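quick one, 602 residues, struct below
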Amino acid sequence: MRRATALPKPPAGEPIPETHAWLTLRTLFPYLWAYRFRVIAALGCLVAAKVANVTVPVVFKNMIDGLSGSEQALVLPVLLLLLYGALRFSTALFTELREFLFARVTQRAVRQVALEVFRHLHALSLRFHLERQTGGVSRDIERGTRSISSLISYTLYSILPTLVEIGLVLAILFVKYDLGYVIITLASLVTYIVFTVVVSNWRIDIRRAVNENDSAANTRAIDSLLNYETVKYFNNEAWEARRYDEQMIQWENAATRSQTTLSFLNLGQQAIIALGVTAMMWRAAQGVVAGTMSIGDLVLVNAFLIQLYIPLNFLGIVYREIRQAMTDIERMFKLLQENREIADAPDARDLPPGPLQVNFDGVSFAYEKERSILANVDFAIPPGHTVAVVGHSGAGKSTLSRLLFRFYDVTGGAVRINGIDLRALKQSSLRAAIGIVPQDTVLFNDTIFYNINYGRPDASRDEVFAAARAAQLHDFIESLPQKYETRVGERGLKLSGGEKQRVAIARALLKNPPILIFDEATSALDSATERAIQGQMELAAVGRTTLVIAHRLSTVMNADEILVMEEGRIVERGRHAALLDASGVYAGMWWLQQQEQAAETA
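---
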């Protein structure tokens, strides 16, 4: 798998690899072409609007010539005035029709891309999410989806209309006048575009440095705020502000350089436009003096120049915005290129219904090749039985639950349910059959009802209440002013550790899975709270295939089998009494914890 890397934090102006524009556009195109009829109709309206817009100066020229003639026919200007108004209205009409037809295409494309990225992020392995930086990823998605709308808008509403108008104007100048006007116009346009592209490409590295430092600063800010309590514990507010400001200084330098180079670009563009306009008007004025052109022709040339150079002036800004949009979209699409690592096999099947037995058959696993976590682990959990795994920190206990959920694939051996290798099962079917009460229960910043109901979103309110009662949580909730609608705060910080664990138990019970995992579910609680919750855990395990991962041995005394792990291996196994009689590792851990508990009580 290609490892996810932290966001780069380059100094302002440091070169960054070039974007892959055509690859990005090719990735985006199918989302738009799905609405090809609307796209084609919108392009037809675009052409019609520009034809009407270019015809307006021609009609105006004829009006000027008609009014300046020796024989003025009143009916001619009236008809031309009516045609002039109709063309003006047609320009607005077709422009609005184009936007009406294309609005759904743009918003649907943004929605579909955002949804696909969101789903893909959830489909990525736990390894990616342990290494990602939430602030940078969220900012990339936000800017990427916004940039899709900007790219489509600038392309359809600015680039294409301007190109169509340039083609129409050049054709009229060539037909009505001479090649000189076409050459001057083309020379101005080519010079303007080349200058804009060259300078904008030079600026793109600077602009990307602005974005990189912006993302990095945002990541630092979110990381610091998520760890607000830790910052307060160590009195490190000034340290966090200094780290944030270090990144913001780099952003400031890059943003300043970006603005100064923008001024240079704008000044060069205006100089090119001024030279082109002067040359065209000089030639037209000479034609009027020589009698080969009328006053209306002079007005027509001037109107064409205004119609060309006003959008052309905006075209420079549009080009820069499009390049920036391409950069942002590319960063978002790179998330879609992240390897899923854990994917369903083509012939993956659903987990069969009925009682389930879990087997770890010679399982070996390593997060990194040079660091082995599990080595030849063998055990079984029969249906309705409880197996406990104990051991010191780092023995590999929690890795067992991650392998059972298939967050990772084993590197040796196999994990099986009813004899079926997990790799042959659909992940959705597998995870639907497993419930977990983790050591650190992280809740959504929503209501207590929402967090319990998350275990099975289609459950009724009565089922949620029943799960809360089973977890000995209902009476506590009813004592709150807002009852089940009480909000729990960010990560559930408004609840105590024991209350959060009860919510986790209620959520697992509502899911009603045949397999249940308690992953050090009470290790962070005090002894009194642990004893209160222990009873609910044992009730929840009745009739289920249960894996209990524990540090405190008092919580696993009643397990059908206890496995003792050291350095990724099972060194002892048996029931509580038998392991004490064996006077081995388990017995040593038991007496040590008893002494610690006695000391605490004293």
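The radius of gyration is 35 Å.
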